[in-house]
Specification:
- By secondary structure, this protein is an alpha+beta fold.
- The chain contains 2 helices and 8 strands.
- The chain has a single domain, classed as Nucleoside Triphosphate Pyrophosphohydrolase (Alpha-Beta Complex), CATH 3.90.79.10.
- The protein has helices spanning 44-56, 123-131, and strands spanning 5-15, 18-24, 27-32, 35-37, 62-72, 78-86, 108-112, 140-145.
- Strands 1, 2, 3, 4, 5, 6, 7 and 8 form an 8-stranded mixed β-sheet that branches.
- A hairpin with a 2-residue loop joins strand 1 (5-15) and strand 2 (18-24).
- The two termini are 17 Å apart.
């Protein structure tokens, strides 16, 4: 897969000022937003819906596109990630009830507050979260690094 583009859709889910984050089993040193890879022929929002249902077991209400992120992932290629607002955050508040058919892809699900000491990727989104400017009517474009 060296040199390949990987397309992902991710969810930005807020509830009571906190952000829903996940850690993946292959690397728990950072937290990410839930979501995953696009299947061939799949749309961005369709992918996000499928991934969230598979991982968390809850149907998302997908809203605005908030971020587009791309970065070099070593020799594994260049991911391009689309981050969408999910407006029904209260449906995800009880973490013990979140369970999907692919929950084995998640090592941990948790809510974070802006003041929590958590390494969130992408870093620019994490910085926006800490200062309260994630939600916007204008998508932001990030060229980050891992």
């Amino acid at each position: 897969m060296s040199g390949a583009f990987v397309i992902r859709s991710r969810a930005i889910i807020f509830h009571e000022g906190r952000l829903l984050l996940v850690r993946h089993p292959h690397d728990t040193s950072f937290a990410a937003l839930p979501g995953g890879h696009l299947d061939l022929g799949e749309g961005l929002q369709e992918c996000l819906r499928r991934e969230i249902v598979e991982e968390l077991g809850v149907e998302p209400k997908i809203g605005r596109l908030l971020y587009v992120n791309t970065f070099m992932d070593g020799d594994r290629g260049q991911p391009v990630e689309f981050f969408f607002e999910v407006s029904n955050g209260a449906d995800y508040k009880d973490l013990e009830k979140l369970s999907g058919t692919h929950d084995h892809e998640i090592a941990e699900i948790f809510w974070a507050s802006p003041t929590d000491d958590v390494r969130i990727l992408p870093q620019e989104l994490a910085e926006d979260f800490r200062v309260g400017r994630v939600l916007s009517d204008t998508p932001r474009f990030i060229m980050g690094s891992r």
